[in-house]
Amino acid sequence: MNQKDIVVAVDIGTTSTKSAAFDPTGHIYAESAQEYPLYSEVASRAEQDPEEIFQAIMKTLSDVVASMGEARARIAAVSFSSAMHSLIALDREGTPLTRSMTWADQRASLHAEQLKATAVGQGIYQRTGTPIHPMSPLVKLLWFKDEDQETYQKAAKWVGIKEYAFFRLFGTYVVDYSIASATGLFNLHTCDWDAEALALTGVPKEKLPEPVPTTQVIQGLNKADAEQLGLPADLPFVVGASDGVLANLGVGAIAPGTVACSIGTSGAVRTVVNAPTTDPKGRLFCYALTEDQWVIGGPINNGGVAFRWARDHIFPDLKAGSEDPYEYLTQLASEIDPGSEGLLFLPYLTGERAPLWNADTKGVFFGLTLNHDRRHMIRAVMEGVMFQMHAVVAALKETGVDPQAFRVTGGFTKSLLWRQIMADIFERGIHVPETPQGSSFGAALLAMKALGILNDFSTVEEIVAIGHRHTPNDEASQVYRKLKPIFMDLAEKLTPDFKALSAVQRDLGQKQ
In the chain, fewer beta carbons within 10 Å around the N or the C end? Predict the structure, then answer.
């Protein structure tokens, strides 16, 4: 690759698609984003229109290609990143019979609960690395089988959103190992569809895309799309991977002991391993990055959403003015000592995924006394999110991972206090990349490896510059060391009460 050779990465997200042009150093030459709606006419459903997403891909990719043409830079390849767990039913012509069910769709909750309680479900998890949860296409297919026989019988293909895009562009059905390994249908050890999982759903492998490596190159872009995009039909398109595993690559968290943590609305903890690894207790996922590298970890539901809830409901009197309300809340929290004088917050406002995988969990303030005020509550919320992230780290440790350093990204990194709380609770160094590119840059790096520009990913950690570093405060860590086991025990002990309360809340909701 010469200095002007560029790789364009397309990142298909839950709320928008972004395209960006990178060189091997991570410099962005051009970028474009297009949002689209999430449809939720029924509370348990969270869907998107495949056509709207495809048009967003075409629009953002066209924008970036045009910018590169003006800069006279040669595009060497296009690569893809995508959100996981989507599912679309297609007819024989490849026309969608359904919208795209996203990871947030909960209609298969009962099917997940029933399967999770069986030895069959546990066996499928151990082979596929996908926790039994309504997010997974495995469980969504069970829902279609039982609840929508008409669509189930008509469907000629079942695909995710990235596979749908590749079908539209190339007329072929392929799925990368990474996205496939997030379906609950893909055997991590054979790198093929799992026979028992397929038998359970009743869907033959012929109705699924062909699994291919994440570095698979596809050429032969259909003529009309090539003309619309301004690209040659024989330009290499790299199939790419899921946004989660590519985020590790994009922030340089690929060495043993280096863990990537991100907190936006939700959060995630991930690290790279050299062999498929699952958790005997079913708390962690394991997804493919390449044929010989895998990412294990877990997502949490409640990250920045908990802080926003605290702003809106604990501080409803706060008026946004010249001062950032989050900075004001952080300042109030900084007036309280670590540990919030023994006040704990379980941040389960939207249920929880890792390591609990329990949609019935609820938010809880535990330990309130007359000495606590709103400052304690806001700090407890910030600490509660980090305690939950650390619970995923603790599960990783039990599987044999030895975390030594954490590379962290997301909106929470704007807060010096929150970053320090993480370092103190995790009791490890926290590194904040200077300009985190995340999944998009990861997709570009994957393409560079596919084209032979990079022999391996050993130099990626050096490419990603670190902007902030935090070391643990021993005094604060000692306080958190006493609180962590109490926090982790609470959710387990409250499990039956969470379930009972959920039933009451559903009943009350139906009567309103």
Answer: C
| pLDDT given at position 324 | 82
For the sheet containing 74-82, what is the strand order? 28-35, 16-22, 5-12, 74-82, 237-242, 217-218
Residue matched to tokens 């006279």: 72
pLDDT in tens, 179-234: 999 999 999 999 999 999 999 999 999 999 999 999 999 999 999 999 999 999 99
Q: What is the pLDDT of residue 453?
A: 87
Q: Say which residues have a Cβ less than 8 Å from residue 298's Cβ, sequence separation at least 6.
A: 268, 269, 283, 284, 285, 353, 354, 355, 392, 395
Kindly state the tokens that stand for 285.
């996922």
Q: Do 438 and 8 touch, CB atoms closer than 8 A? A: no
Q: Record the pTM.
A: 0.91
Residue 305 host element (H or E)? helix 304-309
What phi and psi values does residue 156 have, to the nearest 5 degrees? -95, -25
Residue 213 CA to its chain's centroid (Å) = 20
**Preceding peptide of 355 cis, ω within 30°:** yes
Q: How big is the CA angle at 430 (ends 428 and 432), to the nearest 5 degrees?
A: 170
In Å, what is the CA distance from 460 to each residue of 407, 435, 444? 13, 14, 12
Q: What number of CA atoms fall less than 13 Å from residue 512's CA on the CB side?
A: 6
Q: How many CA atoms lie within 13 A of 303 on its CB side?
A: 22
Percent of the chain predicted with pLDDT > 70? 97
Alpha-carbon span 274 to 295, nearest angstrom: 9
Give CA–CA dist 11/238, Å, rounded.
13
Distance CA 395, CA 352 (A): 15
Helix H or strand E segment including 88? strand 88-90
In what helix (H) or strand (E) does residue 448 lie, and over which residues does it extend?
Answer: helix 439-450
Contacts of 459 (CB under 8 A, 6+ apart): none
Task: Calculate Rg over the CA atoms of the chain.
Answer: 23
- Residue closest to 328 by CA, chosen among 339, 315, 340, 337: 315
Report the distance separating Cα 202 and Cα 117, nearest Å.
Answer: 20
Please, how many CA atoms are within 13 Å of residue 33, restricted to the half-sphere of its CB?
6
Per DSSP (E only), the strands in 150-283 are 157-159, 174-176, 186-187, 192-193, 210-212, 217-218, 237-242, 258-263, 267-273
H helices of 34-148, where?
A: 50-70, 109-116, 119-128, 137-147
Taking CA 283 as the corner, what is the angle to CA 15 and CA 379, rounded to the nearest 5 degrees?
65
Domains, the chain, with CATH or none: 253-436+473-512 (3.30.420.40)
Contact (Cβ atoms closer than 8 angstroms) between residue 155 and residue 89: yes
